[in-house]
Amino acid sequence: MKRWSLFSIINYSLLALFAFCTLYPFIYVLAYSLSDGKEAVRHTIYFFPKGFTFENYIQIFKDTKFLQAYKITILRTVIGTGLHVLLCAMFAYALTKKNLPGRSLFTFFIFIPTLFSGGLIPQFILYRELGLNNTFWVYILPFLYNFFNIIIMRTFFQQLPNSLEESAKIDGCGDFQIFLRIILPLSGPVLATIGLFEGVFHWNDWFTGTYFVNNQALLPVQTLLNELLTQSQALANAAQNAMQSGGTTTAAMSTTTVTPESLRMATLMVATVPILCVYPFLQRFFVKGVMIGSVKG
Amino acid sequence: MAQLSEINISAQPNKSPNKRAEIKKKSLWVRIWEHKIFYLFLLPGIIWFIIFAYIPMYGVTIAFKDFNFAEGIIGSDWVGFKYFKQFFDYYQSWDIIRNTLVISLLKLVFGFPMPIILALLINEVRARVFKRAVQTISYLPHFISWVVVVTLMDRLLTPYGGPINGLIHALGFNEIAFMGNIKTFYPLVILSDIWKSVGWNTIIYLAAIAGIDPQLYEAAKMDGAGRFRQMWHVTLPSIKGVMVILFILATGSIMKAGFEQLLLLNTPATNAIGNVLDVYQVHAGLEQGRFSYAAAVGLFQGLIALILVVTANRISKKVNETSLW
């Protein structure tokens, strides 16, 4: 048996500390969201819930505003990601055809916007002129294509053996059939990677909802969380002022089992958990995707 | 680097001279007709890039116009550099530029070495399960939105029953209001940025480290180098190329101090040191409706960024013989 060297002990401790710092915020929020709201105000929570209850989760799943927002988030993630993956894959596949006249021109055409982008304001004006603002489509249409994702897919498709396509052609398969029946089924890893990247983007995007949408029924969960954050910051300011003038804090006066804060923590968990459940299983794939993207980008 | 370069090579199209000659024989129109289905594949993309990428590029001209929605981008009157002048005459404009640079530079100085250090530490781990667990956990914050991160910070750091302040109190110190505090603003910005990105940024370094020839380590061991000196004399020099490229990319985004993060973290109390170009554009453009003015600020920012990345690339080419293009 090899003894643990000092180097190893320090190294393992540092990494364990790092992992703890990364995970702790989520442990804390989980504990808070499972606590009785009133108890959570009265005691400081560190690792374990105080007055264990599912009430916070029951409450938010009864809240129509939250449910509507969750529906919007799921819808835009599914539709936005599905369309993005399919359209980018079609574009990327066409770019793998070596004899396609104008192939490099098309690549150049989609590369240029990565160097010069119009920026936020022209984008906003465009959405308005197209009538996208305040519609569900503002979550979908602007994000249908992405240069880097197309390049990652193209690189993957190029690695597939050519003989498969050729034998399918001999069997009388058309180009579209080849793409649908041979290329896509063989491209699981890259489709999963791009699907994950795009899905996470859609799931997490709060900016579009906050600045391009006014209709309350169209807001996604992340925008809702942002509203709660702004309210909490305002509340903290008010509390600070109240403390300075000798009053009690608003939080401390709360008497119900659920508080805005405990509901917020439950909302945060529900908004985060789906991602946490998905990404570890795709790790193998996305690590490779990042490398291709960095080499070609 | 082996994995990286392998991908690179296989990505190159096969150009056998025979095939080329054969293709040349067919006329262009025949070839285009043969590929008609693929043009159909490309068509929606071409339309999309024209609408969502090229039209906004033209839309930048509103920085030189008096834009209003009634007359549109083309119809609005040209005003030259009026809005650029207005920005530089604004009494806070230099503060905003300075804040942008200070925050980016602080992030670069403290944030850039972090993934390298983490990758080196992870690379030294021999226990597979532990290594994999640390890596998986380290990627987690990358998948979380900034809204969630700032909400986490807001909750963890609050003086009203937050665990950090609970600990501070238990140790006998006074509670600190971290959020919206001008004294703790920069540390919070930098630490949260590192927390969110460090694990994800190790991916490329770990791939580069995995590609190092094991014989180099053997040779170093023969010469009596311990693990720390192997790290210093073998691992670090071997990933220098990757470091340089990532550094160039980082300098290119120095005019972007972290848009979403600062939009969420900056409050009126910290505005004097937290207002940056990106955030200012949102406030001036989207919230106050000063479109031409905000577009001018954005164009100024983009121009400096382009100059910076080109310069950094040129310097790196001379010094290191490594460059992006």
UniProtKB/TrEMBL annotation, chain A:
<feature type="transmembrane region" description="Helical">
    <location>
        <begin position="12"/>
        <end position="34"/>
    </location>
</feature>
<feature type="transmembrane region" description="Helical">
    <location>
        <begin position="74"/>
        <end position="93"/>
    </location>
</feature>
<dbReference type="GO" id="GO:0055085">
    <property type="term" value="P:transmembrane transport"/>
</dbReference>
<dbReference type="InterPro" id="IPR035906">
    <property type="entry name" value="MetI-like_sf"/>
</dbReference>
<keyword id="KW-0812">Transmembrane</keyword>
<feature type="transmembrane region" description="Helical">
    <location>
        <begin position="178"/>
        <end position="197"/>
    </location>
</feature>
<comment type="similarity">
    <text>Belongs to the binding-protein-dependent transport system permease family.</text>
</comment>
<dbReference type="Pfam" id="PF00528">
    <property type="entry name" value="BPD_transp_1"/>
</dbReference>
<keyword id="KW-0813">Transport</keyword>
<keyword id="KW-1003">Cell membrane</keyword>
<dbReference type="GO" id="GO:0005886">
    <property type="term" value="C:plasma membrane"/>
</dbReference>
<feature type="transmembrane region" description="Helical">
    <location>
        <begin position="105"/>
        <end position="125"/>
    </location>
</feature>
<protein>
    <submittedName>
        <fullName>Carbohydrate ABC transporter membrane protein 2 (CUT1 family)</fullName>
    </submittedName>
</protein>
<feature type="domain" description="ABC transmembrane type-1">
    <location>
        <begin position="70"/>
        <end position="269"/>
    </location>
</feature>
<keyword id="KW-1133">Transmembrane helix</keyword>
<feature type="transmembrane region" description="Helical">
    <location>
        <begin position="263"/>
        <end position="282"/>
    </location>
</feature>
<dbReference type="InterPro" id="IPR000515">
    <property type="entry name" value="MetI-like"/>
</dbReference>
<keyword id="KW-0472">Membrane</keyword>
<feature type="transmembrane region" description="Helical">
    <location>
        <begin position="137"/>
        <end position="157"/>
    </location>
</feature>
UniProtKB/TrEMBL annotation, chain B:
<feature type="transmembrane region" description="Helical">
    <location>
        <begin position="291"/>
        <end position="310"/>
    </location>
</feature>
<keyword id="KW-0812">Transmembrane</keyword>
<feature type="domain" description="ABC transmembrane type-1">
    <location>
        <begin position="97"/>
        <end position="312"/>
    </location>
</feature>
<feature type="transmembrane region" description="Helical">
    <location>
        <begin position="101"/>
        <end position="122"/>
    </location>
</feature>
<feature type="transmembrane region" description="Helical">
    <location>
        <begin position="37"/>
        <end position="57"/>
    </location>
</feature>
<protein>
    <submittedName>
        <fullName>Carbohydrate ABC transporter membrane protein 1 (CUT1 family)</fullName>
    </submittedName>
</protein>
<dbReference type="InterPro" id="IPR000515">
    <property type="entry name" value="MetI-like"/>
</dbReference>
<comment type="similarity">
    <text>Belongs to the binding-protein-dependent transport system permease family.</text>
</comment>
<feature type="transmembrane region" description="Helical">
    <location>
        <begin position="238"/>
        <end position="259"/>
    </location>
</feature>
<dbReference type="Pfam" id="PF00528">
    <property type="entry name" value="BPD_transp_1"/>
</dbReference>
<dbReference type="GO" id="GO:0055085">
    <property type="term" value="P:transmembrane transport"/>
</dbReference>
<keyword id="KW-1133">Transmembrane helix</keyword>
<dbReference type="GO" id="GO:0005886">
    <property type="term" value="C:plasma membrane"/>
</dbReference>
<keyword id="KW-0472">Membrane</keyword>
<dbReference type="InterPro" id="IPR035906">
    <property type="entry name" value="MetI-like_sf"/>
</dbReference>
<keyword id="KW-0813">Transport</keyword>
